[in-house]
């Protein structure tokens, strides 16, 4: 097979290669070990490979990764639902970041996607430019490929916007002729993302190949992005940053919420997706109709190591890594099966804390007494291999520091993951999120009956009673709870707290906790224990992370986010 690495080169790199060939008297010979630009645009199969390769951008965030942190579930560990077990640099870097807001600076951004994101955006713009000027495809195929490319561009820009708010917009390859480019306003960035997704939704087919965006993916991502923009417009109010380019006009909040609701409803109206009655199977069933956009894996060549990172120790004693474990705060969010709230202050609940809980609890959490792979999980101090160990007692304990293990997304049938790794899919856009987006957007618009209908549709599929959202305060309380439970370990919670402007309240000046089980006769007692060595630290300044220092130095048109 020919070497495909040249597909990643910029147009300038391709030109340079051609120039070198000319000087070596080989201008009449097309190199046989690579694709040159003329071959790319003349061969439809190569164009297909190129656009397919651009979906690698989604893989950068699979299983809750953040690219420069490099560990599954890192984004949940930045929030309050998961606790990373290590306190050493590497798999303990998240704990370092959450314990000291001063770890973030222009010299060390902490969450750094700038270079990676803009590299992908340039590749997309090169592709669109070549598609329009050099491709011999039909007009119909050109539009379809442009729609896919603009979906990927919107995806990359959305990550940049979530981090920095105000960033540079590149919508054409010709812009790169200018070295120095300024930031656009946060509002303009979100409008650009929504515009790209409007084009994608209008021109993508109703269905597409596995792992590729179709109309539903464009609508679902637009619903997510517009909800984020509306939340910032409503909640930010320039409280946390004085930069004139950050923040979104509060008067535009309802327009974004309306766009989010319309996109969510359009996803539903396609009739392609269904809420799955078996919550547990969603994350291991490659045929689930909840998946709108997913990343697939096939052994032995395309695999991942989620099970190795999160399976409890006795699944492969001495090998599992246990990067993170659920917090008590998350565990306590799961309701009873009748829809009532769980409470340790309720004597019946406290006596049997893991009985009669809602189905999502058993699909998401491995608790003391849970049945798993033919054994009973014992997270008490009596089990030296799988039981509780206080956070910080060992640098990298590879066992629970909260009394729990994560169950969701583990493959219960995979007993050879140390050697053969894992193949369950990562679902980037899930139908349940669309219902949650719709409920929230409708609530923000004051349409509480419609919000209740959307949330009830989801809860009933999860075996829970209907939701009542009589006013905005109650609606947001219930929706936040539902998002916390439904989307646990899927990388949403940290970003939800940021867009609601609640992160400086929920992730600052407090410790997350665990439940330490201790044998007591025929049963156990449970003690609330801290899972953090020190209070967490999130200041309002972190709602807009700094642009990497080196980028500001080389781009004379680029100014740093004010406050940094």
- Indicate the low-confidence ranges by residue numbers: 1-34
Shape: globular
Q: Separation of termini?
A: 49 Å
Task: Tell me about the largest β-sheet.
Answer: 2 strands, antiparallel
User: Which structural class matches the secondary elements?
Assistant: mainly alpha
Give me the number of helical elements.
22
Biggest sheet strand line-up = 1-3
- Number of strand segments: 10
What radius of gyration results from the CA coordinates?
Answer: 24 Å
Helix content: 40-55%
β-strand amount: 5-15%
What's the average pLDDT?
93
Provide an overview of this structure.
With 564 residues, the protein is mainly alpha-helical. It contains 22 helices and ten strands. The chain is 41% helix and 7% strand. A two-stranded antiparallel ribbon has the order 1-3. Strands 2-8 form a two-stranded antiparallel ribbon. A hairpin with a 2-residue loop joins strand 9 (513-520) and strand 10 (523-530). Helix 8 runs parallel beside helix 10.
In summary, what is this structure?
InterPro entries: SusD-like_N, SusD_RagB_dom, TPR-like_helical_dom_sf. The protein has 564 residues and is mainly alpha-helical.
How is this fold's topology laid out?
Elements: H1 11-23, H2 37-42, H3 44-53, H4 56-59, H5 74-77, E1 82-84, H6 93-99, H7 114-133, H8 139-164, H9 186-203, H10 215-235, H11 253-269, E2 291-295, H12 306-310, E3 324-326, H13 328-331, H14 347-351, H15 359-364, E4 365-366, E5 371-372, E6 375-376, E7 405-406, H16 417-420, E8 426-430, H17 431-444, H18 448-461, H19 472-486, H20 493-499, H21 503-506, E9 513-520, E10 523-530, H22 549-554
Antiparallel strand pairs: 1-3, 2-8, 4-7, 5-6, 9-10
Helix pairs in contact: 7-8, 8-9, 8-10, 9-10, 10-11, 10-17, 11-17, 17-18, 17-19
Keywords: Cell outer membrane, Membrane, Signal
Protein name: RagB/SusD family nutrient uptake outer membrane protein
Pfam family, one: SusD_RagB
């Amino acid at each position: 097979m020919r070497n495909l690495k040249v597909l990643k080169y910029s147009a300038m790199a391709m030109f340079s290669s051609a120039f070198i060939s000319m000087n070596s008297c080989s201008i009449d010979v097309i190199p046989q070990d690579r694709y040159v630009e003329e071959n790319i645009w003349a061969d439809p199969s190569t164009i297909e490979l190129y656009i397919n390769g651009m979906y690698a951008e989604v893989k950068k965030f699979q299983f809750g990764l953040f690219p420069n942190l490099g560990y599954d579930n890192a984004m949940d560990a930045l929030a309050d639902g998961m606790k990373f077990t290590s306190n050493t640099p590497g798999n303990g870097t998240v704990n370092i970041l959450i314990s000291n807001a001063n770890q973030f600076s222009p010299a060390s951004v902490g969450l750094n996607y700038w270079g990676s994101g803009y590299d992908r955006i340039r590749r997309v713009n090169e592709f669109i430019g070549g598609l329009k000027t050099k491709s011999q495809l039909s007009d119909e195929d050109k539009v379809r490929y442009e729609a896919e490319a603009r979906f990927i561009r919107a995806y990359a820009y959305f990550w940049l916007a979530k981090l920095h708010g105000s960033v540079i917009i590149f919508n054409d390859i010709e812009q790169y002729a200018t070295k120095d480019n300024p930031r656009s306003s946060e509002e303009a960035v979100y409008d650009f993302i929504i515009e790209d997704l409007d084009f994608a939704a209008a021109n993508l087919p109703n269905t597409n190949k596995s792992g590729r965006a179709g109309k539903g993916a464009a609508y679902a991502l637009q619903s997510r992005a517009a909800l984020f923009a509306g939340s910032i417009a409503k909640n930010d109010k320039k409280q946390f940053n004085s930069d004139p380019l950050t923040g979104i006009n509060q008067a535009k909040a309802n327009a974004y919420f309306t766009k989010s609701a319309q996109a969510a409803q359009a996803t539903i109206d396609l009739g392609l997706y269904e809420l799955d009655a078996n919550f547990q199977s969603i994350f291991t069933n490659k045929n689930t109709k909840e998946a709108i956009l997913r990343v697939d894996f096939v052994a032995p060549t395309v695999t991942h190591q989620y099970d190795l990172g999160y399976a409890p120790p006795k699944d492969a004693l001495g090998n599992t890594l246990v990067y993170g474990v659920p917090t008590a705060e998350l565990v306590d969010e799961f309701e009873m099966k009748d829809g009532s709230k769980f409470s340790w202050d309720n004597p019946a609940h406290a006596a049997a804390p893991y009985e009669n809980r809602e189905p999502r609890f058993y699909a998401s959490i491995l608790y003391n007494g849970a049945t798993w792979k033919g054994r009973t999980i014992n997270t008490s101090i009596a089990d030296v291999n799988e039981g509780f160990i206080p956070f910080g007692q060992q640098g990298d304990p590879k066992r629970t520091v909260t009394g729990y293990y994560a169950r969701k997304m583990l493959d219960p049938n995979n007993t050879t993951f140390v050697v053969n790794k894992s193949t369950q899919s990562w679902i980037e856009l899930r139908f349940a999120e669309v219902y949650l987006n719709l409920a929230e957007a409708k609530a923000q618009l004051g349409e509480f009956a419609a919000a209740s209908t959307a949330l009830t549709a989801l809860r009933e599929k999860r075996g829970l009673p209907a939701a009542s959202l009589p006013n905005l305060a109650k609606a947001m309380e219930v929706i936040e709870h539902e998002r916390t439970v439904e989307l646990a370990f899927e990388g949403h919670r940290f970003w939800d707290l940021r867009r609601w402007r609640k992160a400086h309240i929920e992730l600052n000046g407090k410790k997350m906790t665990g439940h330490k089980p201790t044998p007591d006769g025929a049963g156990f007692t449970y003690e609330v224990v801290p899972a953090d060595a020190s209070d967490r630290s999130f200041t309002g300044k972190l709602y807009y992370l700094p642009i990497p220092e080196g980028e500001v130095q080389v781009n004379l048109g680029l100014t740093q986010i004010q406050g940094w």
